[in-house]
């Protein structure tokens, strides 16, 4: 039988090829990151960003109580690019402070035109929270728009609590002192301990969408029930992210969740469409 000459990683030539491939991929990633960074800088001065809003629904009534602010990057071919495709790059540079400041100003300006009982929420990155610029930007946004601070909710992702320190806790409590509401995003991924939640001033726990996706399974229901009960035990409102169908909605109501958000209730829309949804009939 003739032996096949199959290249293996033990072959020096194959090892060299793997190294070269990794180097090319690394160079490509650096180049793409640099291009995106420059695109983001340009977008800040050319109205290249836009805000969309997704309704937040009170599950017991089915009515909207507000909306979450979502940042989108305008693209000539791809349309509106979601934040997950560019925000990690922004957070690794000084762009995040300027972008977050713009988002705050615009979100407050839009929300100030909504009925007085509607709120807006927006994600807050750990680099922005720790930048030292947030309080100033927040006060300017609230003063310029006239939005009451209790109508603004800032979200911090649960994994960020792993990197939190005394300065982070101080910053969160300072935000609470200004009257702004705080939400813990992606709750239920089990990064945060209940003891940590007790010392942090969150008013809302946003259930991670991965938990909601498993609601048709008995074990998934039990986990969500436990998380909802834990949130209520801490005196916090529990919001379920990623609600996509009637079954999930009904189960969440039965389990005692307070609020919901997802495509079942409506997709993200522009500020004009959001204002029209809030307008009286």
TrEMBL record:
According to the UniProt entry, where is the signal peptide? none
Q: Which SMART domains match?
A: EAL
Sequence ranges assigned to domain EAL in this UniProt record: 33-281
Region named Disordered: 1-33
The cross-references to SUPFAM superfamilies, in alphabetical order and at most eight, read:
EAL domain-like
**Bias (Basic and acidic residues):** 19-33
Looking up InterPro entries in the UniProt record yields: Biofilm_reg_signaling (IPR052155), EAL_dom (IPR001633), EAL_sf (IPR035919)
Per its UniProt record, what PANTHER family does this chain match?
Answer: BIOFILM ARCHITECTURE MAINTENANCE PROTEIN MBAA (PTHR44757:SF2), DIGUANYLATE CYCLASE DGCP (PTHR44757)
Which protein, by its recorded name, is this? Answer: EAL domain-containing protein (Putative c-di-GMP-specific phosphodiesterase class I)
What is the source species? Acidocella aromatica
Q: What is the taxonomic lineage of the source species?
A: Bacteria, Pseudomonadati, Pseudomonadota, Alphaproteobacteria, Acetobacterales
């Amino acid at each position: 039988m003739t032996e096949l000459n199959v290249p293996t990683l033990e072959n020096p030539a194959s090892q060299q090829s793997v190294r070269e491939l990794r180097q090319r991929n690394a160079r490509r990633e650096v180049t793409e990151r640099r291009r995106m960074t420059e695109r983001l800088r340009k977008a800040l001065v050319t109205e290249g960003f836009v805000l969309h809003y997704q309704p937040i629904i009170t599950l017991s009534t089915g009515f909207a109580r507000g909306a979450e602010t979502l940042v989108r990057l305008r693209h000539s071919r791809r349309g509106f690019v979601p934040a997950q495709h560019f925000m990690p790059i922004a957070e690794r540079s000084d762009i995040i402070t300027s972008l977050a400041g713009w988002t705050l100003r615009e979100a407050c300006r839009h929300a100030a035109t909504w009925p007085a009982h509607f709120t807006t929420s927006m994600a807050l990155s750990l680099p922005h929270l720790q930048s030292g610029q947030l309080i100033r930007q927040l006060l300017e946004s609230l003063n310029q728009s006239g939005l009451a601070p209790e109508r603004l909710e800032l979200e911090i992702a649960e994994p960020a609590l792993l990197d939190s320190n005394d300065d982070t806790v101080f910053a969160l409590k300072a935000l609470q002192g200004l009257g702004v509401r705080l939400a813990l995003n992606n709750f239920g991924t089990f990064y945060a301990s209940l003891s940590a939640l007790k010392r942090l001033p969150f008013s809302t726990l946003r259930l991670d969408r991965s938990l909601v996706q498993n609601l048709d399974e008995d074990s998934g229901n039990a986990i969500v029930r436990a998380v909802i009960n834990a949130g209520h035990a801490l005196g916090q409102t529990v919001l379920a992210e990623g609600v996509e169908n009637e079954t999930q909605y009904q189960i969440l109501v039965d389990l005692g969740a307070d609020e919901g958000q997802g495509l079942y209730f409506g997709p993200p829309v522009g500020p004009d469409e959001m204002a029209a949804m809030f307008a009286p009939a």
